[in-house]
Amino acid sequence: MKNKQSKRLVIDASIAQAAGTTEHPTSKLSRECLSAVLQICHKIVMTPAIFQEWNKHQSLFAKKWLRCMIAKKKMVTGVDLTENEKKQIRENIEEFDTSSNKVKAMLKDVHLLEAALATDCVVVSSDEKVRHLFSDLSQQLVSVKRVAWVNPINSLEMTIDWLENGANIESPRQTIGACRQKLKIRRIIGRDWLGSIQLQRGYDKKIKLYEMVGFNPYNCENFILILLIFQLII
Questions:
Q1: Which of 116, 149, 207, 218 has the most neighbouring CB atoms within 10 Å?
Q2: Residue boundaries of the structural domains of the chain
């Protein structure tokens, strides 16, 4: 690990629910992410709101994993924003959009943002819908821009490598603010290329697109080049 400083991670219940014992990609990638956090020096942030969601949705694997984290003293509690800070975020959400569904979706998961902002600004979640909503919100609420939001289900994000290298957010590739730029590119292209794009290698093995072209897909110029190459080969 390049940076052995422990980071306090806000891990969404979507990961706890998906992390099972099967080889289904969603289950497997969620499980591998939690296992990596257990082995690396990072810790999980657990507020009452996060615990309530975990307790409701966690798989048996996630339940056992959390016990191991507690045994290793790798669970952080007692952290939160001030009431004024939380009020400001919630007011911005309520004023953000006229769509009540979008507002409800953000308010449902605002506890993730609050916990992240109160600690090391890292959210691990597979919920892309609310990620994009918070990305739009970041245009009027600057503090949200610095939060790193990583999705271990998307293999292009190389979440485990990122965790092993210190979960640093100096690079903007995972930040909610940067997510908005990637959405603009995606809308220009007209297709959802930011999913888990994989190509067949040999007969039964899949490799990631970035391994073929040798670039970081979150570098804007390289990202556009990858999209153009992928369009040519399909």
A1: 149
A2: 8-179, 197-233
